[in-house]
Amino acid sequence: MKHAFHRLDAPADLVRVTFRGQVVDLPAGENLAAALLAAGVTVFRNTPVSGAPRAPFCMMGACYDCLVEIDGTTRQACMLEVSEGMVIEPAHGKGADNALG
């Protein structure tokens, strides 16, 4: 499947992370939200009230649509860098139905 987001160049070093229980190789040090989008992740979380899907919107930390949980802490994916061994889950315990597109 083609993704709306893609890399312009080949990543130098890939590291292994886990998103919703699936292993994904992402470029070390790259913006986490951008790397997940380029890897085909289309939904980062679902809202706690309505269950509506959410993914990065502003990419600068203002909107909170890219919330994920890492090591038990809810964080904005657009404000983080990819690092080896990250275990990433949707924020608020709601699963993302269409996580890897």
UniProtKB/TrEMBL annotation:
All residue ranges annotated as the 2Fe-2S ferredoxin-type domain in the record: 15-94
Protein keywords: Oxidoreductase
Gene3D superfamilies per the UniProt record, alphabetical: 2Fe-2S iron-sulphur cluster binding domain, sarcosine oxidase, alpha subunit, N-terminal domain
UniProt keyword Chaperone, yes or no: no
Listed Pfam families: Fer2_4 (PF13510)
PROSITE patterns in the record: 2FE2S_FER_2
UniProt-recorded name of the protein: 2Fe-2S iron-sulfur cluster binding domain-containing protein
Organism phylogeny: Bacteria, Pseudomonadati, Pseudomonadota, Alphaproteobacteria, Rhodobacterales
